[in-house]
Amino acid sequence: MEAASSHDKIHEWHEDVEELDNYQLGWYHPVNIGDVYSNGRYRIVHKLGFGTYSTVWLARDSRLEQYVALKILAAEPSKESTESRIIRHISQYSEKSNRIGKAFVSPVLDEFEFDGPNGQHRCLVTEPARCSLAESKTEPPWIFRVDFARAIATQTILGLRAIHACNVVHGGKARLLSSCLPDANYLHDLHLNNILFTLRDINHLSVDEIYHRFSTPQLTKVNRLDGGPIGPGVPSHSTSPANFYVYCLEVDDPRICITDFGESWLGDAVHPKGYLNTPMLYRPPEAVFAKDLLSFPGDIWTLACSVFEIMGDGTLFEGFFPDEADVVAEMVSCLGPLPLSWWDAWEGRSEFFVENGVWKSDIGRQSRPLRSRIQTMGRQQHPDSLSPDEAESLAAMLTTMLEYDPAKRATADDVVNSDWMTRWGLPSLKPFNIPV
Predict the structure, then answer these.
(1) Are 217 and 240 in contact (CB under 8 A)?
(2) Is residue 334 over pLDDT 70?
(3) What's the CA angle centered on 261, arms 436 and 25, to 5 degrees?
(4) Which of 21, 235, 394, 405 could make an SS bond with 30 (beta carbons 3.0 to 4.6 A apart)?
């Protein structure tokens, strides 16, 4: 059974909530504020977010007297989900290895299944978090303070190295909308939607204090378009997500966690689907030209794109609703010519180039190398701009991460040991007392 399409709508549309027509057999479970789960252990306090395959809720754990996030998977996806197994693998391996960076991957605290009117659902319990980096940068100037940016980028790099040390490739999909939940021998796509700010020091707050600090639940009555009664598998009211948003220039704690392992896989296995659902601007070139090579290097490419975006005010590769050809053209503009076999196989090249490889004059594109992009990444307009020395060091690190050939691309260990990490990245954690 698939999620509802945009045709033949059943329920009235509500802003900023999940697709209400997906409250049907095999899909979402109806949740209300105050509901309890796992024999009364978890009581729903607020909503954190939603995605195509799940809804996510803030709950109070009566046993440990702390707030947690409950990710309730839709019934059909629950049958195929390996997410909890992946996260548990990372947690268990990290405990044995004591790997630096494991603190930036949130563990599964609990897991259970239950039956509801729409089927059997799996629920993952993790630590709650705030908004994603992407959500934090939705308002101008779309840039973090440079000391925060360094710390965020460094934690992300260390976190990916910890994941790769567990033989995990993240490699999958765009994250939940407005969610605050972490979703390994597995791959992980590491873009700004999958990196969340942590939510610390809330366990002492009462539910009323949570509402006062972050917002009270906003409920809207659910109605059918035909005026008929809603079914037992549909909530009586929709719930808008809590306001855990933090504006990029008002971030007061740069601690992050890496999330969403819903499509990750073991690094020594063949990619289970043969394609990536990573957002287009972050996909490595092998996702276009050599899908059989999808593995750890793909994560490194996406990490490079993310580090650039964390340090600046926009994406490394630019495009408004870009298609595959647009992104490949951006790669060529930034990094130079593709390998000859890929160039010959690229069906979209005639949109941008004449036969001798020169840019067409009427398309408004030209070569804009990586170092030029770093110089115009938004820092030049702020008092905390990068020094020429740091900008060059950052460019050198990113260059090794953006090699076209996956076999020549830097590994996570290489990135951690780079000049930029040694001189600027790792030292940036100390002022914030962030342990590694």
Answers:
(1) yes
(2) yes
(3) 145
(4) 235
The runs of H, that is alpha helices, within 312-405 are: 324-335, 340-345, 370-375, 388-401
- Of the candidates 263, 100, 82, the one whose C-alpha atom is nearest the C-alpha of residue 166 is 100
Rounded to whole angstroms, the Cα distance separating 416 from 424 reads 11
**Which residue type, as a one-letter code, is found at position 12?**
E
Q: How far apart are CA 150 and CA 133, in angstroms?
A: 13
What does the CA dihedral 329, 306, 401, 90 come to, rounded to 10 degrees?
-130
According to the model, what pLDDT value does residue 72 have? 96
User: Between helices 146-165 and 296-311, what is the axis angle to 10°?
Assistant: 170
Cβ contacts of residue 246 below 8 Å, gap of 6+?
A: 130, 131, 136, 197, 252
Cβ atoms of 254 and 60 within 8 Å: the answer is no
Question: Is 432 a residue whose pLDDT tops 70?
Answer: yes
Q: Which phi and psi angles does 298 have, rounded to 5°?
A: -65, -40
pLDDT, tens digit, for every residue of 51-83?
Answer: 888 999 999 999 999 999 999 999 998 887 777
Whether 122 and 115 have beta carbons less than 8 Å apart is answered as: no
What is the sign, positive or negative, of the torsion defined by CA atoms of 129, 135, 137, 140? negative
Q: Would you give the end-to-end CA distance of the chain in angstroms?
A: 44
pLDDT score for 254:
97
Asked if the bond preceding 141 is cis, omega within 30° of 0, the reply is: yes
Q: Which two tokens stand for residue 196?
A: 């969340």
pLDDT digits (tens, 9 = 90+) for 240-260: 999 999 999 999 999 999 887
What is the Cα–Cα distance from 47 to 217, expressed in whole angstroms? Answer: 7
Ramachandran region, residue 178 (left: φ > 0; alpha: ψ -120 to 50; beta: rest): left
Query: What's residue 275's pLDDT?
Result: 60
Distance, CA of 237 to CA of 216 (rounded, Å):
14
The answer to whether 156 touches 195, Cβ cutoff 8 Å, is yes
Q: Indicate whether 131 pLDDT > 80.
A: yes
Cite the beta strand spans of 29-127 per DSSP E.
Answer: 36-37, 42-51, 54-61, 66-73, 108-116, 119-126
**Residues 136-183: tens digit of each pLDDT:** 999 999 999 999 999 999 999 999 998 888 888 766 544 444 444 333
Question: What is the enclosing helix (H) or strand (E) of 220?
Answer: strand 219-221
Q: What does the DSSP 8-state code read for residue 311? A: H
Percentage of the chain modeled with pLDDT above 70: 87
